[in-house]
Amino acid sequence: MIDSKIPNPFIGSVVSDPWKPARADVPEIHAEAFLECCQAVSSVQQTHRSSSIIIHGEAGSGKTHLMARLRSYLVGAAAVFISIPLQTAPQMLWRHLRRCLIDDLLRPGDYNQSQFSKIAALRLKTDSQDVTGWLSQVQMDHDLFTVLTLFLANEYRRETRAWLRGDSLSEADLVKLNLFSGSGEEEDPEDKSRRVVLGLCNFFGSDICLVFCFDQVEALQNRPEEKIGLFAFGKMIRALHDGTENALLISNMQSSFIDALVHSVDKADKDRLNSYARRSLQPLTYHQALALIAARLETSADVVRLRQGRSGIWPLDEGDIKKIFEDRPVPTVSAREIIGRCAQLFEVATGKPPKTFDRPADFLETEWQRRLERRATAGHPMDSDQILQHGLSGLTSLGHDWKLEDQDRSQSDIDLIMVSKAGRRIEISLCNQQNMTSLAFQLKRLAEGLKKGWYQNLVLIRDPRLPIRITAKKTNEYLAELKKQGARMLHPPVEVLAALDALRSLLAEAKAGDLASQGQTIGPDSLQKWLEENMPSALRDFMEDLSARTPDEDDFPLEALLALLEEQPLILLTAAAKQIEHPPLFLEAWVRRNPGLVGLLTGPPAILFGIVPDRPSPDVQENPL
Amino acid sequence: MAKKIREWPDESDLSEIMVKVLSPSGQPLTAREIRRQLPGPFKIPEDLLSELLTNLILKRNLFEWPSKGKGAKRFWTEPPSQAFISTIITQALSEKPLTPPEMKKILNKRLFGLSPKMIEPVVQTLMEQGTILLHPKTEGLKAKLGLHPPDPKPYLRKVIKELAQVIKTLAPCRVSPKEIGKVLCDSLNSPGDPIIDQARPQTPALEEEILTKMIAVEPQAPYGALVSISNLRRTVNMEKVRFDQTIIGLARKNKLILHRHSFPQGLTEEERNFLVDDQKGNWYVGAVLVANRK
User: Which of chain A's residues have a Cβ under 8 Å away from the Cβ of B87?
Assistant: First the structure.
């Protein structure tokens, strides 16, 4: 019997992020697939031709673990590793890829050196050139050229980084970067992001391999019959495959998903998806399982100390492991299942009673709360477009009252169209720009469209942390005009955005087989059932607000109030009421009804305050060179 | 007079156009034929074209094919590999069974002059593996090659004739055709008759059939590619229970590795019926041939 206080080395079985170092790695497990990936990297570097691989296996077979091993292998190579969990809407694929690319390129690595710095140093050393010489040799988008020049010169780091990620920048920031045109007419953000991504690949040069690891491909499909997400994914892979000469595209998915993918993409896109190889990850053999258990036991110093002089997998019994294989009609056991079972056996070895599995409902409740809290404090207004677009797709897929309609790309100001069973349409336009000129133009186009009868029920959504300043005259004028014509503006409270973010991440992980409790995979059906029974009231209220028929209650001047709180984060309620020309009693009642938007200290005297969530700074404080 | 200078397009653009010309051509082309199909601005001189083709072959964008007779070398986007030949053969036979001369004609057309020395061993291997079945000749029918077992009806013509005679003979004794049919079915389905027992396919034969059909469904199966169970089921003419048991048996003998569906409860019953069921709540979507698994 071993001390029950010794931590269980088998707790925590899911490797959900290839950037997190794997707790225990057994090189002989999935060695062939790993070798194939390494050879593909070399092939891209030698032939100067992009290539792609599909990796597939059962849920819990170790796909993300394999990617973590590959990432670790690439640290010393002339290559960069980009992880792209496909938790996004099909309409935002390129924007999502752009953001992941920049976040991973600038992520602090060993000795606080990012991958970008590593490659930049390598490139400049090899070519014996300065930055200007390097940039001038590369064909790329003019804006990208301008921003990279500033970035490499270590100027305006925050603004250049934000632009590279695809964040909306204010006019002042655009002026700093020499990118302010004043026209407000912007090109399609997806097209722009595609050009930036392809331009960046080109920028690194053909000797540097960019390994794009697409995870959770299943998350691009909300319903089994839906093909739009996978179709868009196929197109993106083809564009990267044919439009670059230094990319290795790895797509990870479950074996059961291959048919769905193949039937949803064009033949030419399908050929690009596995132009180098298609490799399956096999379930573990008995010997591999023993090796994995031994490696896990080695991760705990306490257990290592106790095991001195013992062999095999003590304190576990090999007979118990053999029985797991023998009890099955087919000796098929995934790595996740083995670790989950060992977690239980370890508990028994410490003298504790055999632990029963948590009910999925209990696990989901805890997981939901954990994600909600994390996202409520870490959310950022620049993520709101993605959260709203993807989160609302997930939310509508849960119920039966509303479904999403495929959009007409010509109406690019409309991001989502919800259609009820009775045929009622709600057109949703996301308006989360920092740039007021750009917002004003969007509102102007929407107002014109509304006049022409293009929209039945137009709803504008803007993050409450992005107030529209009183000085933004044109924006306010167009907004007033839109409201007059029946459009509604919603400012979902931060808790709603956090809930949508938690919802979409849970749905994506469940579809991809990455949601697991104690070795048991929790599928999308179980999650959907739990969500239907436990739908958070914030999300239910938000759906009601979205589908409501009434215009904004009493035409409450929310934008003016938010703008005021931006300037004066603490203000007497009476003073605020005077400033926004709204009766104090009504103002207080409104604030009480909408607690997530504006804070209230009841006093006396009553004071209003702006709500600003805590957020750790994502900036990398280092010179790229 | 100033000499007119002509700049040729970039190599990368030329390469892309070249692949675009060859990909839909449906067959390998000679350098001259490729040049003829290149759009105006891309019609580069033959020496440049030859250099570019060599580069594309080195990068494995294009593959060299044997020349037709004493003609020039040919190039295509597909390699003349055994896997490619197997795919063409199975594609040809997937439409309908063919007599050997019919198949030879089609292969000559689709394999673009590859010598019989390259094709015949592949056909032989496919037959040995059981991917291709030889349908024996019978009265009024020539011997054919096919992917599926032949329709037994033409082979039973004589038997049916004799059976009709038996029915006629026994009719006055009030033996109905139904009763005769039942005796026949019982003889076929129950052990005892040594002649029929010898003829009935045994488990090893079923296993062998499945293993070889896996290669017909997925030519890359010998190299570890996953074979979709539903596609395999469509190809193998076998009742569900027997198919499922054979697959499970092969996995237990470590000849196959099976991949489970992670969320079978989310499938319709019809979709699940295409998968293999182990009666313990597991449904398998794919199988991988085992090479040297410990």
Answer: none
User: Does the beta-carbon distance from A282 to B288 stay under 8 Å?
Assistant: yes
- Between CA B141 and CA B152 the distance in angstroms is 12
Residue A240 distance to chain B (closest CA, Å) = 14
Contacts of A254 in chain B (CB under 8 A): 262
Q: How many domains does chain B have?
A: 4
Residue B3 lies in a domain: no
Residues B160, B123 within the same domain: no
Q: What is the domain-level CATH number for residue B123?
A: 1.10.10
User: Which residue among B226, B258, B285 places its CB closest to the CB of A330?
Assistant: B258
The answer to whether position B191 is within a domain reads yes
B262 to chain A, any CB pair closer than 8 A? The answer is yes
- Interface touch B224/A280, C-beta < 8 Å: yes
- Whether pLDDT at A599 is above 70: yes
- Are B72 and B93 part of one and the same domain? no
* Partner residue opposite A332 with nearest CB, options B220, B225, B260: B260
List of chain A residues whose C-beta atoms are within 8 Å of the C-beta of residue B260: 58, 256, 332
- Burial of A324 from C-beta contacts in 10 A (0-12 / 13-18 / 19+): middle
Q: Which residue has the tokens 């935002």?
A: A92
Residues with Cβ < 8 Å from B162, sequence gap 6 or more? none
The two beta strands, A416-420 and A425-430, are: antiparallel
Instruction: Please name every residue paired with A488 in a beta bridge, in sequence order, or none if there are none.
Output: A459
Average per-residue pLDDT for chain A: 87
Query: What domains does chain A contain, in order, with CATH numbers?
Result: 43-281 (3.40.50), 378-551 (3.40.1350), 557-625 (1.10.10)
Domain span including residue B97: 82-146
Q: Which residue has the higher pLDDT, B251 or B11?
A: B251
Least confident of A127-131, A488-492, A505-509: A127-131
Interval A391-400: pLDDT, tens: 999 998 887 7
Residue B9 lies in a domain: no
Cα three-residue angle B12-A240-B24, rounded to 5 degrees: 60
Which one of A51, A330, A507, A509 would you mutate to disrupt binding with B, by most B Cβ within 10 Å of its Cβ?
A: A330
User: A427, A385 in Cβ contact below 8 A?
Assistant: no
Task: Give the span between the Cα atoms of B131 and B209, in whole angstroms.
Answer: 8
Residue B217 lies in a domain: yes
Residue of chain A whose Cα is closest to the Cα of B56? A47
Which residues from chain B sit within 8 angstroms of residue A49, using beta carbons? 59-61
What HEC string does chain B produce?
A: CCCCCCCCCCHHHHHHHHHHHHHHHCCCEEHHHHHHHCCHHHCCCHHHHHHHHHHHHHCCCCEEECCCCCCCCEEECCCCCHHHHHHHHHHHHHHCCECHHHHHHHHHHHCCCCCHHHHHHHHHHHHHHCCCEEECCECCECCEEECCCCCCHHHHHHHHHHHHHHHHHHHHHCCCHHHHHHHHHHHHHCCCCHHHHHHCCCHHHHHHHHHHHHHHHCCCHHHCCCEEHHHHHHHCCCCHHHHHHHHHHHHHCCCEEEEECCCHHHCCHHHHHCCEECCCCCEEEEEEECCCCC
Cα distance from B188 to chain A (closest Cα, Å)? 30
CA A432 – CA A310 distance, rounded (Å) = 61
pLDDT tens, residue by residue, A192-239: 999 999 999 999 888 899 999 999 999 999 888 888 999 999 999 999
Q: Which of the given ranges, A161-170, B98-107, B214-223, has the highest pLDDT on average?
A: A161-170
The residue among B58, B76, B94 that closes a domain is B76
> Of B49, B76, B103, which closes a domain?
B76
Amino acid at A178: N
B3 touching A (Cβ < 8 Å): no
Helix (H, G, I), strand (E, B) or coil at A15: coil
| B207 shares a domain with B194 | no
